[in-house]
Amino acid sequence: MKVLIYHLLLSAAFVFAAGSVEQYFGLTPESAQAKGLDATHSAVAIDGAKISPDACATCHEDEVDSYMNTTHAHSWSANMNCAECHGDATKHIESEGAAGTIVSMKNLSSNEASATCVKCHEQTGEQSHTQLSEHFRAGVGCTDCHSVHPTGEHKAEMTSAGKSSMLKAKQTELCLSCHDAASADFNKPTHHRMKEGVMECSSCHNPHGTTFDHQLRADAKTLCTTCHGDKKGPFVYEHNAGALEDCMACHDSHGSASRHMLKDRDPRTLCISCHSKEIGKGVPHGRAGFSLQTTGDCTRCHAAIHGSNHDEFLIR
Amino acid sequence: MKQIMLKIISASLVVLLSLGDSAQAQDERPSFEAGPYIFNLGLMAGYRNITTEAYGANPSDYWAEQRFYEGYGNYRSGLTLNSFNLYGEKSGKEGFFDQLFVNADGIGDPFTSASLRMRAFNQYDLKVSYRNAKYFLNRNDSIYTGLHKFDMTRQFMNASLEVNASEDIILKANFNSTGRTGIFTTTVSPFVVGGGESGTGNQFGGYARGNFYWMKTPLNDKTNEFGLAATIKVPTTDFTLGGGYRMFSQDYMPDEINDTSLTYYPAKGEVNWAGVFSGFPNSPAKATNNPLYSFDWKETQESTTPFGYLEVVSKPIKDLSIVANVRYEDTKMEGTIEGNMNGIMARTGGGLWNLADTTSGHFHNTFNTLVGSLSATGTVIEGLNLTGVYRYTSRHLESEGELMKNVGVTDTVTSTVYKTLFTGPFDNMVTSKVTQHFIEGFVNYAPINMLNLRAGVQLTMRSPEYDREVEGEPDSVSNTNLSRETQGMTPFFSFWYRPVRQLKISGRFSHSDVKVYEHGTTTEVDMPIRITPKVTDKYSVGIDADPIEDLRISAHFSAVKGSSELLNMIPLVQTFNPELTNEMQSIGGSIHYQVIEQVGITVTSEYRTNDFAIPSSFTRGQLDPTPLYGDSLTISVEQHTKDLFLDASVTAKPIKALELVVGYSMIDSKEGSYITPDTKTGIAPDLIRIGGPYTWNRLHAQASYDITRNIGVQVDFQLISQKEIQEADYPAVVNNYKATLIRGSVYFHL
């Protein structure tokens, strides 16, 4: 703890005394150029603004080797080179790799690093809402999940499906490494088979952002019924909970201690939450007209709980 | 002999470890060449043994049996192909793919997946994946839930081919399929021929509940979808135009099961829940009188959905990004119902009647959805961004159904027709139009690199309009309730602050206020779905730090506090407290510490509380001039849970060829749902709990050892236990089990 406090104090003092965060965070391509680190200052023959991976490999062999196995190396952009992300390398070359002479993603804040990525990626559908994403909002950037050149990991790692998206790990492991609560939910007795590999987080969510809550790819009912087609309908009589809210009115999406991933361990409690007087007609019902269902699940009789085509009480 | 064995084992270990040391020198996995490609192949297979012990008051119930555990834990005993991974890439310039991925997992397990991806950069990208998931349950054939068992497999198939027609045009074709096969075993609702539809009142229903019967129903729903899309890139803008066709089909054909394997039936003269439920504490004898003599029921449903969409992503100027999309779907569903059944029902005043019921019907549903959105983000000055989002959703449902019923009863002794209860059609019609608007605007301000501030507001508006007619009569109560309009406003604020690279502090607050009105008026009413509170505050703060090298710490706290004033809960026999509450608090964190290069520790934990309550009281018997039980009851519809989750693991690599992982996970869930129990002499107690507080523990260990560059061995061990704590007077549903797993595997790299 002492070490932590010491380090924090030291770091804070350094930042504020220096009055410049760039010494700590490194440089963005823009700020690097603003400091004069552009090609016009190059005193060497290599054009640092368009430096090829082959030239960089002279010193950074591992990084370039792993980079060459990624989509980036084969990008549709004919101009894609190391300087696209790392900025003009002229000073870096001149100083033979001195620290601070080139943009290093490790030294950028997440959003700064992301700004480099979205220069090209914000115009594609999957990443077009990056600015809206909860991740971006919370300062989680592209390089927190993706590795442009996974140095140190062997090429065999590429055989895992996740690596084809340059993810640092398999998608589910990666997401759950931060989302502890979701990780706990997926351990519960009834859960979506995420950890078992039947689904991935991106089956429902777009980590890069959408216009829907929780970064869902569509409204919850549309998403759920993509797989649960038998609940999609349309029905002559819908269950109003699903019609007015969505499936999440009754179900937990990740996992639950209840059957069928219901929100409540006693399904009657769940039903009675809405179906008491007024909203439901004559419900809850039970003995002698008394307002409590005394035995069994409501769905024992209301079996067509998601919707029925011939019974308004969703009996079948 | 013992010494010889020890020597053999020791010698083997020495050989293995020395081979393993030689494997340390291998920096790269082996590969092989085939034609113009280089491949890596990884294959792991092994033998797994599972032992399961179920215990508790009712070990045959719910989870407590091996088959469910296999599904839950994705395991089974026997030989398994754990994984198959083939990766190939072009070694030179020749060849029709740049990269090839072939993966398969869990072959023979309840969850199996296989995928193929093949691509040539800037030319094509082919992806095919198949997954199946088996789900099974076999619990006590109790009347409580109506669901006895299921055994089903859900299949998923996705395939897509993306082709770069030119540098600026990408074409994509895809096929998606999902569906289920299997069987459900359930009780059949006694109301199938009871109540208003058949004109039999509760007579058949009451008898059937006391002598309920079982059905098995094949599952066979299937959805197939084909799609085509083209993306055209012009300077500053991408256009994607797509469309497709989706088909759904399902038959519902339950078959009656005689009670050969099902044992739960009420005994004569004893209290049974079914009898109590229908107002008869002592049920009639079960005898052999399954209430159905014959049953023949078939429903069919088929739908088709053409759909189309357009998405535009544009960056007209450097500091402005615009995304717009619109999607339209038009679903048409046709269905039929045909049924014939013969059974028995209780006769008023004693005795039984034969019942004959024929049903036929058809329905036609159309459902149109239109979803469109527009979002724009622009930079006003450096560090200051403005974003606006608008989304419009419209759903229009028109459903029409006709049901023909012919119900008659005959005396069981004389077989004479007593009377025809009902014959005639029921015409049902539902139309609904739901429009929703979502508007969000926020400003993002980063005055300095280390600080990010965001503030904005979300507005939601929903205006449903329902018109339900049952047998030609408008359902005024349902129409009014379902047509409630909601308007919500949620201002929010969030920030993150990173004074040094090793430290980040973040936080978020939002306040949501939803107003609900009777359609077309300014009269406020309750939420249509009461679980969702009207007023909700959400808070969260978090801290992430890397105080020293090799140590990462994060901690977070979040809370939700929601409440609703219950405006129109009418005190009649019920008295509700005026407020519904829904609260959650969560505190959690994680630590990762790389103690030394070879040893790392990770600990993650969360403690979460959830509280939901609609406190209410009931006075029993007020409805009747002569109260049946003559007492009162206070009932609190509540759910309180306190969940502690812990996950800890240690990884060690004492030598390069050997990797060890030991971990422990647990969930401790306390409390649960409550409807105040009520036990009265002579009648059944109000059974309040299905499920309950529980603890779940999992200990796992894994050791992997590279014997040579190509071959390794792996041993897995798991011990899992779940213990439900019996607090309620409902012993039939305590579900406890223990399970151990031992697996030995061999892996190859070629």
Q: How would you characterize the overall build of this protein?
A:
In chain A, 32% of the residues lie in helices and 3% in strands. With 316 residues, chain A is mostly helical. Chain A has a two-stranded antiparallel ribbon with strand order 1-3. Chain A is elongated and about 80 Å long. Mean pLDDT of chain A is 70; it is low at 1-45, 152-156, 158-162, 278-284 and 286-294. Chain B is mostly beta strands. In chain B, 7% of the residues lie in helices and 65% in strands. Chain B has helices at residues 2-24, 66-73, 195-198, 203-210, 273-277, 476-482; strands at 32-34, 37-55, 78-90, 99-107, 111-120, 124-138, 147-166, 169-187, 214-219, 222-234, 237-252, 255-257, 292-317, 320-346, 352-381, 384-411, 417-448, 451-470, 473-474, 485-500, 503-517, 535-545, 551-565, 574-576, 579-596, 599-618, 633-655, 658-674, 694-706, 711-724, 736-749. Chain B has a 26-stranded antiparallel beta barrel, surrounded by four helices. The longest helix of chain B has 23 residues, at 2-24. Chain B is globular, with a radius of gyration of 32 Å. Residues 13-26, 57-64, 193-202, 263-289, 569-574, 618-634, 677-691 and 728-733 of chain B have low confidence and may be disordered. The interface between A and B is large, with 112 and 192 residues.
Structural class of chain B: mainly beta
What percentage of residues of chain A falls in helices of 4 or more residues?
Answer: 25-40%
State mean pLDDT of chain A (0 to 100 scale).
70
Q: State the helix count of chain A.
A: 15
Helix content of chain B: under 10%
Strand order of the largest sheet of chain A: 1-3
> How far apart lie the N and C ends of chain A?
63 Å
Rough outline of chain B: globular
Report the radius of gyration of chain A as a whole number of Å: 27 Å
What pair of chains forms the biggest interface?
A-B, 112 and 192 residues
- Strand percentage of chain A: under 5%
Mean pLDDT, all residues of chain B: 77
Unreliable parts of chain B: 13-26, 57-64, 193-202, 263-289, 569-574, 618-634, 677-691, 728-733
The largest β sheet of chain A comes out as: 2 strands, antiparallel
